[in-house]
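Homework help board

Subject: predicted structure for assignment chain

Our instructor gave us this sequence and asked us to write out the predicted structure in C-alpha cell form, then describe one feature. I got the C-alpha cells but I'm not sure how to describe them. Can anyone check?
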Amino acid sequence: MNNFYPGPSKVYESVPKLVKKAYNKGILSVNHRSPTFQKVYHKAVILLKEKLKIPAEYEVYFTSSATECWEIIAQSLIKENSIHLYNGAFGEKWFKYTSKLKGEAKALTFNLDSEPEAQSYQQDTICLTINETSNGTRVPLASLSAIRATNPDALVAVDATSSMAGQYIPFDKADICYASVQKCFGLPAGLGIMICSPKAIARAEEIGERAHYNSLLFVRENALKYQTHYTPNVLSIYLLMATLKKHGGIDKVDKLIQQRYESWLTFFSRYSQLQMLTGNTNVQSRTVLAIKAEAATIDKMKKKAISKGIILGNGYGKWKEDTFRIANFPAIKDKEISNLEKFLKSFFK
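My C-alpha cell output:
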C-alpha cells in the first residue's frame, strides 16, 4: 500500500531488515538496565542531537508517546498556570487534558490563516503546537522566536509531533519539545521523545514533584544513566538509533520536504475542485497537507484510492467531512508520490 495517512504513516523500507537484525542480536529481549541497552540508548541520544541539531546541553528522554508528555509537563513543569495557543484539535486536546490536572490552564485560540500573537503572557508556561496535524497548519519559526523573546521568564513547551525529524526546529527557542516516532521519524508507533532545556530541568527541580511514576525528576534520574524508568519499547529505541544512523541530517531532510511541499502546491493549483484548507502559505504545514473539497467528492475519492492501493488521510475534527490529508513525510518515496499524482489526475480528468 502507498500510505499517505498522517500518522501512523509509512515506515522506512529498512525497518523489516532492522527488526530481523535486532532479533538476531538479542535486542528484543535485552534487559533495560543492562550495558547493552544503555549503549543503544546513549547512541540514539547522540544521533538525535547530531542529526536534528539539538543543543548539547539539552537532555533527551524517552516516553511511551507524545501524549504522555502532556501529563509530564502538567505534573512536573507547570508551576501555577499555563497558556495554550492553538487553532486545531491537538492543541485543544493538550489544553483540555492540562486543565484536568492544572485548573489554571488558559486557552487562547487563533484562526487558520493567522499566527499566534507574540505578546507578553502572564502564565509561567506557554504551550503551542507548531505543526497542527488536524488542519495542516504550522507556527512559523519566526513566531516561535518572537514568543520566546517576549516571554524570557516563561517555559516554552512545543508539540512538534508531526514535524520533528521532517522540518528544522530551532530547539534553543523552546524549553520542552516532544514528538512521537510514527510520523516524520518513519517508525512504528509506540515511542515518544521529549527534549528539555537546562531551564526546564531547573524548573522541575524547583517544583520537586515526585508523586507519579512518570514524574520528570524520576524520568531524568534514569535517563542520566541511559536507562528508562519503566520497561520501554526497546525495539523502537533500537530502530530509532539505526534509522538515524542511516539517514541524512535535518538540513537535507528539510530541503527535501520543502521541495515536495512546493511541488504539491503547484499540482493542486491545477484543480479547481481542490483547495488548501488555509490559503496563507506562511502558515501551511510542510509535512501535513490538508486539502478541502466537496464531502461527496472526498468520500468517493478515498474509496477509489483504496482500490488502487493508496491510503489517504481522513479529515479531522470539524474538518472531518470536507477535507482529506496527505502526509509529506521523509519515508515516503518519490515513486509513491508519483502514484498518488497519477491517481488524482485520473480521478479529476
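Reply (TA_rk): Your C-alpha cells look well-formed. For the description, you could write something like this. Residues 2-8+249-347 form a domain with the Aspartate Aminotransferase, domain 1 fold (CATH 3.90.1150.10). That's the kind of observation they're looking for.
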